[in-house]
C-alpha cells in the first residue's frame, strides 16, 4: 500500500520515492546531507542511505560508547548496535528525516476554517526562495537600465560643451561595467525563472497524472478525448510560468521607477508618459471581457475537437460498421472551423492592444520632444535631459506594450487551471483523509451480503441483492450468460467500484 501508484523503477523504492510515499501517508520527510556526528537523538528515527543501494533505520546514538543502534531490514538481524566508524564506511552522507503530521478525524469540528494549500500555488510556493532572488535580480536590472539615459545626459550636458574627453572615458568605462553586470543579472534571472518553472512543471505534472490514475471509476469522465484535451492544456500553464511571461510581469511595476526619474530630471515633462501609461492599461482592461470569452470558446472547441478525434480512433471499427464516417467528418470540420474563428478573434483583440501601445508610445515620444523644447528654451531642462527623458519614457512604456499578450496568456492559463482544478477535485480511490486497515496476510475469504450495484449513467442494476460466501482456499466458478454480472463481481472485489447497497467482506473485514 505504501508503494501503490508510485513510479517504481528496477531499483525499487528510491530515496525520492520514499519521501513521496511518506508525504502521501501523513508524514513530512526530507533528504538532508548530514554527518553522523551531527545527527541529534531528538531527530530519530531516521533512514540512513548506505552504499550498494541499501539503507538502514537509525534508532539511537550512544556518544559515550561511540556506537549506533540500527535496524537493517535486508539482513533480518533486527535491532543491533554497530560502531560509528564501521557504519561510516558504508554511509553515503545522506539521511531521510521523517516526522508525523497530526491529522484530525471527522469527529473534531472545524471551528476555524483552515485554508489548505492550493495544488497549483502551493507547488509554486515551494520555489519562493528562487522567486525572491528573481525579484532582486529584476530590481538590479531595472536599476541598471538607468545607466544609459544618464550616460547620454551627462555626455551632452557636460562632456560635449567642455570637450572633457577624460570624463567621457570615465563615464564610458563606468557604463560598460554596468552593462556587464546587467548582462549577468539578466542571464541569472532567466536561469532562475526557468529553474523554478522546471521544478514546478515536474511536480505539477506528476501530481496531476497521479490524480488521474487514482480516480474513482464511478467518476470516470464520459469523454476520454475531452478529458485528455483538458490535461493537455497544462501546456498553457507551463508557458505562463516561463521566463518571458514572468519577466514581463515583474517589470511592469518598475515603470513607476522610470516615471520618478523622469520627474527628477525634467519635472512636469513626466506628465506626458504619466498620461500615456494609463491609456494603454485602460484599453487592455477594456478588451479583457471579449478576450476572455474568445479564449474560453477556443478552449471548449479544442476539447470537443480532440474528443471527436480520439473517440473516432478508439472506435474506428464501430464508426465504419455503422457508416458514421460522414457524421464524424462533419463534427470534425465544424469544430475546426469554430476554433479558427475564435482563434482569429483572439489574435485580433490581442494585436489591437499592441497597436494601441505602439501608437501611444509614438505620441508620448513626440509629446515629450515638443514639451521638452519649450522647457529647454525656458532654461528648465537641458538638451541631454530631454534626450534622457525620451529614452526613459520608452523604457517605461515597453512593458505596457506586452500587457495584452500577457493578459492573453493569463486567460489561457486561467481557463486551463479551471479545467485542471476540476480534475484535481475528482474523488480518489485513496483519499488522504482516509485510514486503511493493514492486512499483510490475506487468507482469501470473500463474502457478499445483499450487494446491489448500478453502473454510473445506467438505470438497470448490474447486481441486485447478491449474497454468497467463498471460504479461504476454496475454488469457485461463477458462470452465467452475458450481462449476468460476472465481471461486475470481479470489479467489486478488486475495488474498481463500490456497491450501492449491502456489504463486501474480505477475511471478515468490510471493504
Q: Judging by the overall fold, what is the CATH architecture of the largest domain?
A: Up-down Bundle
| Structural classification | alpha+beta
Q: What proportion of the residues is helical, as a percent range?
A: 55-70%
- The tally of domains stands at 3
Q: In terms of per-residue confidence, which ranges show pLDDT below 50 for 5 or more consecutive residues?
A: 111-116
- Gyration radius over CA: 33 Å
What separation lies between the terminal Cα atoms? 15 Å
Strand content: 5-15%
- The backbone outline, from C-alpha atoms, is flat
Mean model confidence by pLDDT: 82
The helix/strand series, from N terminus to C terminus, equals: HEEEEEHEHHHHHHHHHHHHHHEEHEE
Strand order across the biggest sheet? 1-6-2-3-4-5
Number of helices: 17
> What oligomeric assembly is this protein in?
single chain
Q: Major beta sheet, specifics?
A: 6 strands, antiparallel
Name of the top-level CATH class of the largest domain: Mainly Alpha
Question: Could you give me the name of the CATH homologous superfamily of the largest domain?
Answer: ABC transporter type 1, transmembrane domain
Amino acid at each position: 500500500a505504501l508503494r501503490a501508484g508510485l513510479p517504481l523503477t528496477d531499483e525499487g523504492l528510491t530515496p525520492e520515492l520514499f519521501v513521496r510515499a511518506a508525504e502521501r501517508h501523513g508524514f513530512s520527510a526530507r533528504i538532508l546531507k548530514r554527518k553522523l556526528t551531527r545527527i541529534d537523538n531528538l531527530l530519530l528515527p531516521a533512514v540512513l542511505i548506505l552504499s550498494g543501494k541499501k539503507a538502514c533505520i537509525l534508532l539511537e546514538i550512544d556518544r559515550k560508547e561511540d556506537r549506533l543502534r540500527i535496524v537493517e531490514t535486508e539482513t533480518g538481524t533486527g535491532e543491533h548496535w554497530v560502531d560509528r566508524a564501521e557504519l561510516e564506511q558504508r554511509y553515503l552522507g545522506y539521511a531521510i528525516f521523517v516526522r508525523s503530521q497530526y491529522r484530525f478525524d471527522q469527529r473534531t469540528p472545524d471551528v476555524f476554517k483552515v485554508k489548505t494549500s492550493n495544488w497549483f500555488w502551493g507547488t509554486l510556493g515551494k520555489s519562493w526562495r528562487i522567486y525572491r532572488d528573481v525579484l532582486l535580480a529584476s530590481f538590479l536590472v531595472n536599476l541598471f537600465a538607468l545607466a544609459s539615459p544618464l550616460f547620454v545626459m551627462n555626455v551632452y550636458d557636460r562632456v560635449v560643451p567642455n570637450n572633457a574627453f577624460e570624463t567621457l572615458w570615465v563615464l564610458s568605462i563606468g557604463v560598460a561595467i554596468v552593462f556587464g553586470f546587467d548582462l549577468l543579472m539578466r542571464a541569472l534571472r532567466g536561469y532562475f525563472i526557468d529553474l523554478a518553472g522546471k521544478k514546478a512543471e515536474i511536480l505539477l505534472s506528476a501530481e496531476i497524472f497521479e490524480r488521474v490514475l487514482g480516480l474513482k471509476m464511478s467518476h470516470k469522465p464520459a469523454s476520454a478525448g475531452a478529458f485528455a484535451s483538458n490535461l493537455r492544456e497544462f501546456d498553457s500553464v507551463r508557458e505562463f510560468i516561463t521566463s518571458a511571461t514572468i519577466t514581463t510581469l515583474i517589470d511592469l511595476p518598475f515603470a513607476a521607477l522610470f516615471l520618478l526619474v523622469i520627474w527628477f530630471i525634467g519635472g512636469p515633462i513626466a506628465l506626458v508618459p504619466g498620461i500615456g501609461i494609463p491609456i494603454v492599461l485602460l484599453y487592455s482592461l477594456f478588451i479583457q471581457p471579449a478576450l476572455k470569452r474568445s479564449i474560453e470558446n477556443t478552449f471548449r472547441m479544442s476539447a470537443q475537437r480532440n474528443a471527436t478525434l480520439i473517440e473516432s480512433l478508439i472506435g474506428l471499427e464501430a464508426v465504419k460498421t455503422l457508416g458514421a464516417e460522414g457524421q464524424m467528418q462533419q463534427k470534425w470540420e465544424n469544430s475546426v472551423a469554430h476554433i479558427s474563428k475564435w482563434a482569429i478573434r483572439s489574435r485580433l483583440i490581442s494585436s489591437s492592444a499592441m497597436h494601441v501601445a505602439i501608437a501611444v508610445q509614438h505620441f508620448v515620444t513626440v509629446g515629450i520632444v515638443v514639451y521638452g523644447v519649450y522647457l529647454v528654451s525656458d532654461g528648465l531642462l537641458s538638451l541631454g535631459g530631454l534626450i534622457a527623458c525620451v529614452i526613459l519614457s520608452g523604457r517605461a512604456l515597453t512593458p505596457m506594450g506586452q500587457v495584452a499578450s500577457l493578459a492573453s496568456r493569463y486567460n489561457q492559463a486561467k481557463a486551463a487551471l479551471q479545467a485542471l482544478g476540476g480534475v484535481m477535485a475528482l474523488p480518489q480511490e485513496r483519499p488522504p483523509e482516509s485510514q486503511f486497515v493493514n492486512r499483510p496476510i490475506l487468507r482469501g475469504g470473500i463474502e457478499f451480503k445483499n450487494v446491489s450495484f448500478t453502473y454510473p449513467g445506467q438505470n438497470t442494476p448490474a447486481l441486485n441483492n447478491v449474497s454468497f460466501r467463498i471460504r479461504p482456499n476454496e475454488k469457485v466458478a461463477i458462470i452465467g450468460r452475458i450481462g449476468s454480472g460476472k465481471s461486475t463481481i470481479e470489479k467489486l472485489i478488486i475495488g474498481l467500484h463500490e456497491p450501492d447497497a449491502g456489504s463486501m467482506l474480505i477475511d471478515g473485514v468490510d471493504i
